[in-house]
Design goal:
The protein has 19 helices and seven strands. The protein has helices at about 1-5, 20-30, 35-60, 65-75, 80-85, 95-110, 115-120, 125-130, 145-160, 160-175, 180-185, 215-230, 250-260, 275-285, 305-315, 355-365, 380-395, 400-415, 420-435; strands at about 185-190, 195-200, 240, 265-270, 290-295, 325-330, 370-375. Strands 2-1-4-5-6-3-7 form a seven-stranded mixed sheet, with helices on both faces. β4 (about 265-270), α14 and β5 (about 290-295) form a beta-alpha-beta unit.
Length: about 425
């Protein structure tokens, strides 16, 4: 194994702490007699535990060794994989080195663990290559990663040679991309000592736009802008504003499920992370994906200055904002920064209330969003229509008059009419009926 891995060129930076590199060290010490059986077994078991932990997180099954090798192939960002993401397989000398690396991986796919198992009296390699995973509940693993890795793993294992593997892997990179952005839909960021880290969101909301009752014109405007964006056409930053519980956040999250297969990805940013926005943009601007930077419940008090970082990023400085990045935000406020009467102290009294420099400074953030969409609270009739639609979808059987009577009583105790209130009422009603 260690002799094969030493031949890797493009994939040579797997990291000395990777499972593969550590197993190489075990096999080298075993072959050269540099460690006793007990110590070797302990080291192997340590890597098997890491493999099982990774497999649980990613939902691997059947042949964990093949799944792991496939995972390495599609998550390593190097000159070959990033080029394939942008342009697909292209003629060039790098393809020669890629084929040589894939030949190594072909040998690793077919590696015979029998001799070391027989010598050490273990069967862990046989077990993980014929594995049956426990059925996992939703949210315990990333099902998108599981599906994609296992599908490609089966194809790579069945490939006749490295040239067939080359075709499979380059087609995957062109269609899905490389690294975490290729495998996952949505991310948060975390500031580490050694830089910015993108953290995949494994249990994303599966909501679709069709699940949201009402607000058809608002959803249509949102879809039109996003469709233009993923097609590479001019599109705008978007602000969804209005009453709470009306579906603003759900609408944006639903876009990800509608357009993921067209290359859309989403990065959720919190207000305290706005200083990291330039670094986020620098990391994603040259990737072959369309990124929505999503900011939920955006608003600022008059003492907060973080809005200046956001405004600078939206407007762009010397370097223009990349075409593959837009900002979508939700807010309960039409004007995002709290305005006080004292802000208007320098206002000229000539009928133009926006002559105040302070007011203009604060209002200017909202104007950076080219598309603004209002999600206002539904009327009582609209609220009742939402209740009836949700009840039908959930299979609630109840006289309509009684259903609406209970829904009206519910909203009086739970914050007024809104889509969220209707959903909470149906959840409660379904739970009581099922119980």
């Amino acid at each position: 194994m260690y002799r094969e891995v030493a031949k890797l060129l493009l994939y040579s930076d797997l990291g000395e702490d990777s499972i593969l590199k550590r197993l190489c060290g075990v096999f080298e010490d075993w072959e050269k007699g540099r460690a006793d059986a007990t110590r070797l077994t302990g080291r192997i078991y340590a890597e098997m535990k890491r493999l099982l932990d990774l497999s649980t997180a990613c939902g691997f099954d059947t042949n964990l060794w093949h799944n792991y090798l496939t995972y390495l192939l599609i998550t390593n960002e190097n000159s070959f994989t990033l080029t394939c993401e942008r342009t697909g397989a292209a003629d060039g000398s790098v393809n020669h080195f890629a084929a040589q690396d894939l030949k190594v991986f072909k040998h690793l796919f077919e590696f015979d663990f029998g001799p070391i198992e027989a010598d050490l009296g273990i069967d862990c390699f046989s077990t993980v290559t014929h594995y049956r995973a426990i059925e996992k509940r939703e949210g315990l693993c990333n099902r998108n990663v599981s599906r994609m890795v296992q599908s490609l793993s089966l194809q790579l294992a069945a490939a006749a040679d490295e040239h067939v593997m080359f075709g499979l892997i380059t087609r995957y990179f062109k269609e899905y991309g490389v690294g975490m952005f290729g495998l996952n839909k949505a991310f948060r960021i975390r500031h580490e000592e050694d830089g910015l880290e993108f953290c995949p969101i494994s249990n994303g909301d599966p909501i679709r736009l069709s699940d949201l009752v009402g607000y058809e014109s608002q959803k249509a405007a949102l879809v039109a802008n996003t469709r233009a964006f993923v097609r590479g056409l001019p599109a705008n930053n978007v602000l969804l504003y209005g009453d709470s519980g009306t579906g603003k956040s759900s609408s944006i999250k639903a876009l990800l499920n509608e357009f993921y297969d067209q290359g859309l990805r989403m990065i959720e940013i919190y207000k305290y992370q706005f200083r990291d926005l330039p670094n986020v943009i620098a990391r994603i601007k040259n990737r072959n994906f369309k990124f929505i930077i999503y900011i939920d419940d955006l608003s600022f008090e008059d003492s907060e200055v973080e809005y200046k970082f956001l405004k600078a990023v939206i407007e762009g400085g010397v370097e223009a904002r990349p075409d593959n990045i837009l900002i979508y935000a939700t807010s309960n406020r039409r004007h995002l920064i709290r305005e006080t009467w004292s802000d208007r102290g320098d206002m000229e009294h000539d009928g133009d209330i926006h002559r105040s420099d302070t007011v203009e400074e604060k209002l200017s953030l909202s104007t950076r969003f080219g598309v603004t969409i209002n999600y206002s609270a539904p009327s009582r009739q609209e609220y009742q229509a939402i209740v009836k639609a949700l009840a039908k979808r959930r299979g609630v059987e109840m006289d309509e008059a009684e259903l609406l009577s209970q829904a009206n009583r519910w909203e009086l105790r739970h914050g007024g009419v809104s889509g969220r209130t209707a959903q909470q009422f149906i959840n409660d009603l379904s739970g009581r009926q099922d119980g």
